[in-house]
Amino acid sequence: MMEYLDNEQATFFKWCDEIVRAYISQEGMTLRQWRPRKNRDGKYELIFELTQPGGVPFKQVVAIPEQFHELLEREYFICHPDDEDEF
Question: Is the pTM of this model over 0.85?
């Protein structure tokens, strides 16, 4: 089990896990990678890439609740550009 620095991080990663699990629970779907990103409007979203049955890639974007935006400003975008679109 992964240890987090605080409850806010644990809550954020639990939320991410639940979102991704909802998509990979469909038969034949596999997760390739995921990450948060900041869109051009300044809102955060979870972007993840899946592989559908037959090896077909599938990209999904889900809005991240505002309660996590401050955490992402502090922790994630220190080393990641806001407009990074590629995995």
Answer: no
